[in-house]
Amino acid sequence: xxxxxxPGSHESPDDAASAAHSLELLCHLDGAAHGSTACxxxxxxxxxxxxxxxxxxxxxxxxxxxSSSQAVLAGSASLEGRGQLKFTSGRWSPHHSCTQxxxxxxxxxxxxxxxxxxxxxxxxxxxxxxxxxxx
Length: 135
Prior knowledge:
Blueprint: H1 13-17, E1 37-42, E2 50-55, E3 58-63, E4 72-78, E5 89-93, E6 100-105, E7 108-113, E8 118-123
């Protein structure tokens, strides 16, 4: 039978019994010059030393150096078009040796090649959030 928590306690019995895990700051991503950051994602495979961040209309590829607390900007691409386009989310594709990133902005989904930092596809008028899409 699970232990009862005291009223007003925010810990579950499992939380109280396990050792606390601490987070470690690996580095700073200095993307302030590119705008407000909407998303940060680690490369899903490999050595974990590459990160993407989306800031306003910029896709930024970062290289995390072991010997430094500052990440190095390895590449960037800009979202171009009419109006004030901004990235809202992005994800690495675990396929093709993690050389592709998919991003969302307004009603478009775009694919990017991280080797050349160029757009490789665009799906205009993509389904709105909350709509189920088959893979």
